[in-house]
Amino acid sequence: MNDDPYTVLGVARDASQADIKSAYRKLAKTLHPDLHPGDKTKEKEFLKVGSAYAILSDVEKRRQFDAGEIDARGQERPQQQYYRQHAEADPQGRYASSDGYGDFGDASDIFADLFSRRARGGGGTGGFDAPGGDLRYHLDVDFMDAALGAKRQIPLPGGGTIDLSIPAGIRQGQTLRLRGKGQAGFGKGPPGDAHVEISVGPHPFFVREGNDIEVEVPITFDEAVLGAKVEVPTLAGRVSMTIPKGASTGRRLRLKGRGVKPAKGKPGDQTVVLKIVLPELIDAEMEEIARRWQEAAKEDPRAELWRTP
């Protein structure tokens, strides 16, 4: 299957951010694992849709993808001139590594620095010490893991893993630094660090803005008219909320402190946006109620649209 994020979400390359969000939410609700328990194919499709949205919903990542700077997984693409530079390098320097020495410019500067360290360490016959290079990784994290915190393992190219603690409240694009988990140093030099860039996947129902969470909750016609107590989802599970009488679609209710609780700092709030949903089948009794209401109603809900500013 094509991994191009535009193809995965079924949107045009010039689609607006609103169209991208709408396309994602439709697919996520259709493919969510809760609706297809045990279906590995649907689970893979759901993850692919989430990865595509993680790139296209981020303006900078979308620009980088469109410019060919990153691939569909968000990984940096190798420079186009790399192969030519590699092929034209001298036989001794072709396979030399300069990890950890990006500030020196070229190989001659690297060796000059190493030999100067060697000389300072006690003449020209001793060894030299130098720190190891840093390693960079990209990790896709589930929305809930980013919000609540989690522990993950990153597989290494040469085998083995790195244990990673994801702090609660981590955000899209943040980088975690693991000291001493990079390449081994030279001589007595310390090892480098590992830098893990986090990409947070979207959620089919929750939308995050900073530490605040928003969720759209459907309510029935009678719940809107009469008021009710309904269960609404939060990051920590279901909670009961009171719907006031006469609630309209779009009304926003706040659950204080029910947003993301970061490892450091103040927790956010959760906003519940109400949406009145009518039953698919309207019976005669409900039609009669609507007619009586129509005859008695005096308010025009669209009156504000015709008032001159």
SSE blueprint:
Layout: H1 5-9, H2 17-31, H3 40-56, H4 59-66, H5 82-88, H6 107-120, E1 135-141, H7 143-148, E2 150-155, E3 161-166, E4 175-178, E5 194-200, E6 206-209, E7 212-219, H8 221-226, E8 228-234, E9 237-243, E10 252-255, E11 270-276, H9 284-296
Parallel strand pairs: 1-5, 7-11
Antiparallel strand pairs: 2-3, 4-5, 6-7, 8-9, 10-11
Helix pairs in contact: 2-3
Overview of the structural elements:
This protein is α+β, with helices and mostly antiparallel strands. It folds into three domains: 1-77, DnaJ domain (Helix Hairpins, Orthogonal Bundle); 133-202, Sandwich (HSP40/DNAj peptide-binding domain), CATH 2.60.260; 206-306, Urease metallochaperone UreE, N-terminal domain (HSP40/DNAj peptide-binding domain). Helix content is 29%, strand content 22%. It is built from nine helices and eleven strands. Strands 6-7-11-10 form a four-stranded mixed beta sheet. The protein has a three-stranded mixed beta sheet with strand order 1-5-4. A two-stranded antiparallel ribbon has the order 2-3. Helix 2 runs antiparallel to helix 3. The longest helix has 17 residues, at 40-56. It is elongated. The two termini are 52 Å apart. Residues 79-126 have low confidence and may be disordered.
